[in-house]
Amino acid sequence: MNEENLYTFKARDQTYLQYYFYGENSKEKPTIVFIHGITAELHHIQQFALKIKTEVNVIIPLLRGYDPTLKRGDLYYIGQYDDDLEDLEIYLREGGIHNLYWVGHSMGCGNLYRYLEKGCSKGTGIIFLSPFFHPSLPVYRFNQQSDQEEDQLFEVKFYKSIILYTLHRFKIGLLNRAKIATIPDDFHQDRKLTLSFRLLFSRFPVENNLKSLHNSKLPLFMMIGEEDEITDSSKMCDLWRDITNHPFTVEQGEDHNSIISSDNTIIKVKNWIKDIQES
């Protein structure tokens, strides 16, 4: 593997899923798998990778529904992301990569929490950046009485989501492919991408009590920007402190996305990994 190349791995449904690789071909070197949020934010994540790749290899999967070469805005079934993460980890371990860490940003934290909850990961640790675990948690700033954000970039049909969630609870899945959100398309400038209920629902924990954070035997680390415009950082820290003894930090001057590639984030991620390796 050479730095900044695009590779594929084969998932259990025989689909080839793409990922970026940043670093060098060293199986002993720590490797981070970075899971993006509701938008891909590739610019920020690639900056993170470029800054840390000397010490840590970085893999950035292009998730189903986002990858421009595959079916977009939808999955084939609820929970398919869980299977894709497990297939990716198996692929990496079969390739000799065992010093493996997961990093999630925003809704990517929901993906990693689901994966942690199911006990699938044999990884070394998980970092949650600007975590968006579950929309029902009382830590987020969005107004659920409005169907559209003020900046017109994101549109989420909250009431439609509630109806579909209720139907899902009664095991009625005929409308799971219905579109409930519109976001900026990171792969096509000036276009938008619509996301289905089953795609978004596959990014949230089934329950919102986050008890797996308390029960986790894997090292966990939460980082959030003091100026996060999506999540109230003080409320998130209080919630984290109430649930688990794992460490967390608030980054001064950083918001929901800027924290990804800030120099302080890079330093703290490297130090956290180093502490785990030396423990």
TrEMBL record:
Record-level Gene Ontology MF annotations: hydrolase activity
Keyword Translocase: no
One Pfam family it belongs to: Abhydrolase_1
This protein's record includes keyword Ribosomal protein: no
Keyword tags: Hydrolase
InterPro entries: AB_hydrolase_1, AB_hydrolase_fold, AB_hydrolase_sf
PANTHER family xref list: HYDROLASE, PUTATIVE (AFU_ORTHOLOGUE AFUA_2G14860)-RELATED (PTHR43798:SF33), MONOACYLGLYCEROL LIPASE (PTHR43798)
Record-given protein name: Alpha/beta hydrolase
Taxonomic path: Bacteria, Bacillati, Bacillota, Bacilli, Bacillales
